[in-house]
Design brief:
By secondary structure, this protein is mostly helical. The protein has helices at about 1-25, 45-55, 60-65, 70, 75-94, and strands at about 30-35, 40. It has a two-stranded antiparallel ribbon. Helix 2 (about 45-55) crosses helix 5.
């Protein structure tokens, strides 16, 4: 009778493991927006850039003189283009 009880417990543990694993979900932590040479532009880079512009943080003024920073933050596409330009210039300097 004892081996039957062990198999019942094993089946219960297997069922619980499968049930638990089916309820767990994958979550996107970071999303790559662009790749420039060996550098990547991520969604967190876009958010960080927006925060820097709004708070008046340190930015690359040489690139921003060509465009108004307040206009850039209105469009994610403009931010991505700006960040790509930064990465291209950085890679050319290296």
């Amino acid at each position: 009778m004892r081996p039957l009880r062990n198999f019942q417990l094993l089946y219960v543990f297997i069922f619980l493991f499968i049930a638990y694993s089916s309820f767990s979900q994958a979550k996107v932590i970071e999303k790559i927006v662009a790749i420039v040479d060996d550098s990547i532009v991520t969604l967190s880079d876009i958010d960080a850039f927006k925060k820097k512009v709004v708070s008046g943080g340190l930015l690359d003024d040489a690139l921003l003189k060509m465009k108004d920073p307040k206009e850039i933050i209105k469009s994610d596409k403009a931010i991505v283009e700006h960040l790509i330009d930064e990465r291209v210039i950085d890679s050319e300097i290296k």
